[in-house]
Structures are given as structure tokens and as C-alpha cells.
Amino acid sequence: MSNRSWFYAANGQQQGPYPEAQLRDLITRGAVGADTLVWTEGMSGWQRAGEIPGLVPGGSGPPAYAQPGGPPPVGAGSYAGGALSIDVSIWELLWRSIVFVIGMVLVIPSPWVATWYYRWVFSRLYVPGRPNLAFTGQPLDIWYVFIAIGVLTYVGSADLYYLQYLSIPIQAVLAWMVIRWIAANLSSNGQQLPIAFNGSALGYIGWQVLLYVSFITIVGWAWVVTAWMRWICRNIDGTRREVIFTASGLEVLWRTLVFVIASFFIIPIPWVLGWYARWYASQFALAERGTMANA
């Protein structure tokens, strides 16, 4: 492998070829990361650097199968589908999440803080076949939605039960609008993606209400969340592959309980937050349309 020449993708452009020694130097300096797409002769397609055994410290993955010729076009997926993943450090995830919560509580900065947070999250998200994923939404696109969400954070402190119940469908509609906004503002390699979330507002309200009711069963909420995520995935259109949610209700239940219980002890929060975020992201995957996902 030491005599190979490597290519890597940056800003939607193919860079290289570079001798392996130079590529490793780029990795050391941070110019090439574990999520950067790379290719060398003998590989069937572009892969993340972290998936190449021995290339990135701590990285591992299946060996590439030989295929003659030059590198495929940047952005061409090396396989039809696969699980999503997120590459975040526990401390960065923690402080950014804290800033996000504070921004929502303060109401006025919520549109800017939310946009800033979503841009960071999607820049750290790896989607098979969609290199350099980015969120392109602007703070003032739906500023009124975030202001309303911020205001509703104070409803729970009100000693008026009817007001709290009334806020449930309102919160659902606001969350539905945020999801539609996010889906419509995703890009890959600088090109806008034709993605849309077409689930109905009424359907989203129904799931929100069902979630609240399911807490009566103590544990039933986990299966509601699982079914809800699958409904959301089924209503994502504009992609040549379908998005699926692979977690089972039992997995959602025990992992969420571990996260909540550990958070009561304060100190473990950064670690369990990173653990839970990485697991949750990995439960979303892309598959050829028509593939049945059983969980």
C-alpha cells in the first residue's frame, strides 16, 4: 500500500494523485479526515478514509475489491446503500447542545442558534453516496417558527393544564414545519438535493398525541417512537434510495433509559450523549427502493 497514489475529494473536487506518505501527512494535519472520501487503484469506488484499514489512526473497515481504471466520478457511491453515521467529539456535542438549548430558552436568538446548530450537525453527518452533506437553510427562513417554539418552552411551567394540552398539537405543527424546512435545504458537494418531506401535518399531530398517550403504558412510548421514525422515513421523497429506520422498540427503550438514568448523575452526560447520538444516527440507513426493513 505504501507505493500507492491516492486521490481524495474536497469541496466537490477530486484532489491528487498524492503519494501515500503525502496523504498521511494531510491526515496528520487534519486536511483529510476520517469522513473524507478517498480512492486508490484497486478500490471499487470512493470510500471514507476511516474505512480503509490502517490509513487513519483508529480507522477500520472492510477491504476494497479490485477494479481497474481511474477513480470514479466524485460523489459516486461505492455501494447502493448503508447506515448513516455521525462523527462528533463528546465535548463539542455537549457545548453546542447546551448553546442550542439556551438559545431556544432565550427565544429571540433561537432562529440563529438553531440554524447554526443544524449546519454543524449535518456537516458531521456521513450519508453513503452523498459526500460533503450540508444544511443551507437561513435563520430568517422560518424565524417565526423558532420564536413560537421558544415561547412554548415556558408553557410547561404554567399552572394551566388546558394550556399545556393545547400546546401539544401546536408543538407538533411547529416541529413538522422544521422538518420540512430541513429536508428542503440539504446539499451534497455544493449541489442542492431535491429532497422533500411530504408527511401531512395532521399525521404528525397524530403521532405526537399518540406519543403522549403511550406514556400511560410506561414503556410503550419506545415502540411509538420507532413507528413514528419509520413513518417520517416513508414520507421522505426526492431520493433514488429510500430512507429506513432500523432500530427496534426494545433498542430504543433500553438505550434511552440508560441515557436518562446516566444523565441524573451529571458527570457521565458527555459520554452517554455522544454514545446515544452516534447510535441514533446509525439507525437511519439508505436502501434500494422496495427493500423491506424488518425490525
TrEMBL record:
The keyword Magnesium does not apply. It comes from the Bacteria. The chain crosses the membrane at residues 93-113, 133-155, 162-184, 204-231, 252-273. Residues 6-55 form the GYF domain. Keywords: Membrane, Transmembrane, Transmembrane helix. The keyword Transport does not apply. InterPro entries: GYF_2 (IPR025640). This is GYF domain-containing protein.
